[in-house]
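May I ask you to comment on the folded chain given beneath this request?
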Amino acid sequence: MTADLALKLSQEMLWTAMLVAGPVVGISMIVGLIVSIFQVVTQIQEMTLTFIPKMLAIFFVLVALGPWMLATLVQFGVTLFTNIPVYVR
C-alpha cells in the first residue's frame, strides 16, 4: 500500500463520516441555538431544558435518516473490503 492510497482511503473515510454524522450534528446545533435563544428571551437558566429537545430532535433525525446512514456505511465497508486485493498489490 502506497502513501497515496492510504491518504485517499483516509480522505474517503473522513468524508463518509462527515456525510453520515452531518445531519445529526447540524440538527443538534440548530435545536441548541433555538433553545438558547428561548432561554435568553425568557431568562430561564435551566440546564436540563436544552437536553430534552436535543434528544428528541436527534431521535427523529436518526429514525428518518437511519436507513440512509446505514446504507452509506455499508456501501463504504463493502467497497473497502472488495478492494483489498487492489490495496495489497
Q: What stands out?
A: The chain has a mean pLDDT of 92. The helical segments are 3-42, 51-82, 84-88.
